[in-house]
Design brief:
The complex is a heterodimer of chains A (263) and B (254). Chain A has helices spanning 2-39, 45-55, 60-82, 91-129, 132-138, 143-181, 186-196, 199-225, 230-261. In chain A, helix 6 packs across helix 8. With 263 residues, chain A is an all-alpha fold. Chain A has one domain (52-261). Chain A has 9 helices and no strands. Chain A starts with a helix and ends with a helix. Chain B has helices at residues 44-51, 74-81, 99-103, 105-110, 115-128, 145-158, 175-192, 203-209, 227-232, 236-243, and strands spanning 4-15, 18-29, 33-37, 59-64, 67-68, 84-87, 163-167, 195-200, 212-217, 220-225. In chain B, strand 9 (212-217) and strand 10 (220-225) form a beta hairpin. Chain B folds into 2 domains: 1-83 and 161-254, Rossmann fold; 91-160. Chain B is 37% helix and 25% strand. Chain B contains 10 helices and 10 strands. The chains are: A mainly alpha (263), B alpha/beta (254). Chains A and B meet through helix 5 of A and helix 2, strand 6 and helix 4 of B.
Chain lengths: 263, 254
């Protein structure tokens, strides 16, 4: 009786487990294929430029708005918190560290995942369900190289640039609040920021940005490429691309921070 | 005896428990236009995709120019595709590209030809399918269904392939436009001297395009012959299909 219960339980769990392992295998193969194709010719330069423009240039307003307000909030919060200990002078360096190490890379990546990851999944997914991907194959073009590779490279190239711009805008946001609202001396604020500026802060942010860029493109392409079942399938692929990329960004944010700063 | 361009033997393909192709045997001679007829969901599209290497069959053999297609690597697949063209059911035009870029896709992306030269060649091919040069600079979404089919046809023949596949070329078109597409298909295939494989359930189209017709039913080729032979056959499955009658051995699964 007890053994039959266990057997039934395992049987019930078996199907989703097999589906999960199969999906994991499919995803691993996709990642391996993506990396291999990124490193071997032919490369489609025109597609890469288009992706860089879409992912980079057109994301600038979103990234700029996100990081400027993040910098402003951090300046306000740290000022009100540090005032309790009489450490208001640390506001500039707290803004600097928060923005460069965490806020610019993570918030920019989450915003780009929502904007570009979704668009990638929707575009590739629609191409899949309307047989455009099959059409590429019949035109002697490897769809992986034509569609996935330029997007992965664009993610790797564009995100660090966006984050670097986000760093500057975020720090500027902190400066605006610090100087015009909290009454810091502009020269002192800038000096404090520059004195506390360390290459590790910027480097960490840029490494994170490259990894996040890879994740955003990978999840967008994977979910789009494997989508099926018409409009509903494309919708599901789009949602999955954004959700999975966002979760992976937060997980890898911790992992990279641990690698750089754990003692 | 005419040379065989495509030779299919004992082809099996399933999706899960659903058996789609269950031992297909088929020969297509060089320069021949073969039309495969059969009801919806009988595996006609799967057959074409297996020949093109887009789907891998479980067992069986597909020889194109005496070369095995099943199990070939990516490089060999690209070589195989370079001698094939395909008109998709829904057109499958790249909506991120202009009409002429769709037609000149192979020239631009694979042969790396000069953009100006590729465009003039694309315009020439578009003219051959009855489209005016000003269509070249439109986006596929600005075209009607019939025009999209013509552009799809132009793209399929632009690289002058040896084998052309037509997947339901007249589906969704009015009878007059269907006839125009049929004429264009005949002109293109004969003009290129290509071998053609068309799948359709439009009997008017099949009669017009085909040198030979084969019927696919329950995953097998159950009958093949010329149009004249089809009209005389007493095969009950073929008779029911060409007469479009719900009474007969073919049961519609609902």
């Amino acid at each position: 009786m007890f053994l039959t219960g266990i057997e039934n339980f395992l049987r019930r769990q078996g199907k989703p487990l097999v589906a999960f392992v199969s999906r994991l295998g499919e995803f691993s193969t996709f990642v391996a294929q993506a990396v291999y194709n990124c490193l071997t010719p032919p490369f489609y330069g025109r597609n890469l430029l288009r992706q860089i423009l879409d992912m980079g240039f057109y994301s600038l307003p979103v990234v700029g708005l996100t990081t400027i307000f993040a910098g402003m909030v951090i300046a306000l919060q740290s000022y009100s918190g540090f005032m309790r200990f009489g450490a208001e002078g640390a506001v500039a360096s707290v803004v600097l560290i928060s923005v460069t190490r965490e806020l610019a890379p993570v918030l920019s990546a989450l915003m780009v995942a929502g904007r570009i990851g979704a668009a990638m999944a929707a575009e590739i997914g629609t191409m899949r369900v309307t047989e455009q991907i099959d059409a590429l194959t019949t035109l002697s073009t490897n769809p992986f190289k034509y569609l996935v590779t330029p997007r992965i490279w664009a993610g790797l190239i564009v995100m660090p640039v966006l984050v670097l711009i986000g760093d500057v805008i975020g720090i500027f946001g902190g400066y605006v609040v610090g100087v015009y609202k909290l009454g810091f001396n502009p020269a002192n604020y800038v000096n404090s920021t520059l004195q506390n500026l360390q290459s590790i802060d910027i480097t960490t942010g840029l490494v994170k940005a490259a990894v996040f860029g890879f994740i955003i493109s990978l999840m967008g392409c994977y979910n789009g490429y494997k989508s099926k079942g018409g409009a509903q399938g494309v919708g599901t692929a789009t949602t999955n691309a954004v959700v999975s990329a966002s979760i992976l960004i937060l997980i890898f944010n911790y992992v990279i921070t641990e690698l750089f700063f754990s003692k | 005896m005419s040379e065989t361009k495509i030779k299919i033997r004992n082809l099996h393909k399933s999706f899960g428990k659903k058996v789609v192709l269950d031992g297909v045997d088929l020969d297509i001679a060089k320069g021949e236009s073969l039309v495969v007829i059969g009801g919806s969901g009988t595996g006609k599209s799967v057959l074409i995709k297996c020949i093109q290497g887009l789907l891998t069959p479980e067992t069986g053999s597909i020889l194109v120019d005496d070369k095995e297609v099943v199990g070939i690597d990516e490089q060999e697949k690209e070589e195989l595709h370079s001698k094939m063209g395909m008109l998709f059911q829904g057109g499958a035009l790249f909506d991120s590209l202009l009409v002429w870029e769709n037609v000149a896709f192979d020239m631009l992306e694979n042969k790396k030809e000069d953009k100006k030269k590729a465009k003039s060649e694309a315009v020439r091919v578009l003219r051959s399918v009855g489209l005016a040069p000003d269509v070249a600079d439109l986006s596929p979404s600005e075209l009607s269904g019939g025009m999209q089919k013509r552009v799809g046809l132009a793209r399929a023949i632009a690289s002058r392939p040896e084998i052309i596949f037509f997947d339901e070329p007249t589906t969704g078109l009015d009878p007059i436009m269907s006839d125009v597409i049929n004429d264009l298909i005949i002109e293109s295939v004969k003009g290129l001297g290509a071998t053609a494989l068309t799948i359709t359930h439009d009997m008017a189209s099949a009669r017009k395009i085909a040198d030979k017709i084969a019927m696919l039913y329950h995953g097998k080729i159950i009958w093949q012959g010329t149009v004249k032979e089809m009209d005389k056959t007493d095969n009950p499955y073929v008779r029911q299909f060409i007469n479009g009658c719900s009474c007969g051995p073919i049961k519609v699964e609902v």
